[in-house]
């Protein structure tokens, strides 16, 4: 995603880390400060060395994770999510089989740190708790480290700008079915309903033939299914459940007294919650997507976002905001319910020359993961098409290590 933003000349907007609080439903377990020395002292006082060690733990995970870029630059691709993770580093396969809680406990982290800081991170990023598997847990922890950024103007500008750059022919439409045509010039017939405004008036199903198909939307319970016709084996949505998340944006004033603050001085810009049965997953002050000071910001008024696992009632919104000028809600079937059923993960290959990217979300759902999954599928289809079988499901060996071995 960093490279895409550079190639496309899009500006990165660094996020102000602000004040962080962790709330247990009754009181704040910790509130950081706008002075970094005070923040460090407070975090150290509550979590001891865990707060320092987690930085190097995340850095170590990130370095292992980054191996995928070298592997993909060398043209290697994998047919399963587990093989791809194994190629990054075998420890990631182990992380998929344990909860993030047990991974961190085994690495010496305290219950207090896991139950508050780690649980808070899992709840805001995935709406679940520290029982989710260790790989997605590690990705989630990387997501609460300082230094986050987004694309100025919105992250959607990356795919939007990649379309003209890659010179593809985009047909906006909902794919309804894919038919296998074994003996035709193209392998597949795709049936779709155009959805672009120009075509919507006379929207009737259209068809087109393709040699290679890549499916890049979740094929899981709860999503509308594409019909796969005339395939020798049945292809249908995968059984894994997706987690529903409701993002409620409120232009107004957060209810500081609910969290035990007398006024809004020192009120956190991010509040994580650390009890599994709490309705509120997290609160975050929302920044302008262009990085400008909020236009409507008058006095204490700002735009705040809360994440919950079901839509809040008006009374529930009133618990978290004492004034509301405008309320918007987005209901997402957001990311998988993470468990350890790793033996039945969706494959990257659904049929010869027909690929599926989103199985990678079972390892972790994040933009970078989707991009890595997409590049894996691009390499996989290329390797299949040109018969580069030595670059499929093979462990990547660094050429410098190879020559060392030869000398030995
Ligand atoms: C609330 C929330 C917060 C998140 N925050 C972050 C974050 O901070 N950082 C991060 O890295 N990730 C975050 N994510 C995850 C990130 O959004 C996903 O990883 C990413 O969007 C997945 O990209 P995708 O292209 O695989 O799927 P999607 O973005 O879901 O795109 C799939 C597309 O396929 C289209 N489609 C579906 N069916 C059909 C069909 N039959 N025919 C044609 N088109 C179809 C859909 O309309 C959609 O446009 C967040 C997700 C949610 C829900």
UniProtKB/TrEMBL annotation:
<feature type="domain" description="Prenylcysteine lyase">
    <location>
        <begin position="32"/>
        <end position="394"/>
    </location>
</feature>
<protein>
    <recommendedName>
        <fullName>Prenylcysteine lyase domain-containing protein</fullName>
    </recommendedName>
</protein>
<dbReference type="GO" id="GO:0030328">
    <property type="term" value="P:prenylcysteine catabolic process"/>
</dbReference>
<keyword id="KW-0274">FAD</keyword>
<dbReference type="GO" id="GO:0001735">
    <property type="term" value="F:prenylcysteine oxidase activity"/>
</dbReference>
<dbReference type="InterPro" id="IPR010795">
    <property type="entry name" value="Prenylcys_lyase"/>
</dbReference>
<keyword id="KW-0285">Flavoprotein</keyword>
<keyword id="KW-0560">Oxidoreductase</keyword>
<dbReference type="InterPro" id="IPR017046">
    <property type="entry name" value="Prenylcysteine_Oxase1"/>
</dbReference>
<dbReference type="Pfam" id="PF07156">
    <property type="entry name" value="Prenylcys_lyase"/>
</dbReference>
<keyword id="KW-0325">Glycoprotein</keyword>
<dbReference type="GO" id="GO:0030327">
    <property type="term" value="P:prenylated protein catabolic process"/>
</dbReference>
């Amino acid at each position: 995603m960093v490279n895409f933003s550079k190639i496309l000349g899009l500006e990165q907007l660094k996020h102000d880390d602000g004040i962080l609080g962790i709330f247990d439903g009754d009181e704040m377990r910790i509130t950081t400060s706008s002075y970094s020395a005070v923040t460090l002292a407070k975090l150290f006082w509550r979590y001891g060395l865990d707060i320092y060690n987690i930085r190097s733990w995340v850095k170590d995970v990130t370095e292992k994770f980054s191996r995928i870029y070298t592997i993909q630059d060398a043209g290697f691709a994998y047919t399963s999510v587990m093989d791809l993770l194994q190629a990054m580093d075998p420890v990631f396969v182990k992380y998929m089989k344990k909860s993030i809680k047990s991974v961190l406990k085994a690495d010496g982290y305290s219950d207090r740190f896991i139950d508050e800081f780690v649980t808070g991170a899992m709840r805001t990023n995935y709406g679940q708790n520290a029982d989710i598997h260790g790989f997605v847990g590690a990705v989630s922890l990387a997501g609460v480290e300082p230094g986050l950024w987004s694309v100025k103007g919105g992250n959607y500008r990356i795919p939007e700008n990649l379309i003209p750059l890659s010179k593809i022919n985009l047909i906006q439409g909902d794919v309804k079915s894919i038919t296998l045509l074994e003996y035709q010039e193209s392998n597949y017939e795709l049936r779709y309903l155009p959805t672009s405004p120009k075509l919507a008036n006379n929207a009737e199903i259209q068809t087109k033939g393709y040699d290679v198909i890549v499916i890049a939307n979740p094929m899981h319970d709860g999503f509308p299914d594409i019909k796969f016709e005339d395939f020798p084996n049945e292809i249908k949505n995968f059984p894994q459940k997706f987690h529903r998340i409701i993002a409620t944006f409120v232009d107004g004033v957060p209810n500081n007294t609910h969290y035990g603050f007398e006024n809004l001085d020192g009120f956190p810009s991010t509040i994580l919650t650390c009890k599994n049965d709490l309705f509120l997953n997290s609160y975050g002050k929302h920044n302008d997507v262009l990085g400008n000071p909020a236009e409507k910001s008058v006095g204490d008024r700002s735009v705040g976002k809360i994440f919950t696992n079901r839509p809040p009632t008006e009374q529930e919104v009133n618990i978290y905001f004492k004034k509301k000028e405008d309320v918007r809600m987005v209901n997402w079937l957001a990311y998988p319910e993470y468990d350890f059923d790793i033996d039945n993960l969706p494959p990257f290959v659904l049929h010869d020359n027909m690929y599926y990217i989103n199985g990678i979300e079972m390892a972790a759902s994040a933009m970078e993961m989707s991009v890595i999954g997409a590049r894996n599928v691009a390499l996989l289809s290329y390797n299949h098409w040109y018969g580069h079988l030595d670059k499929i499901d093979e462990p990547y060996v660094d050429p410098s290590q190879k020559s060392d071995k030869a000398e030995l």
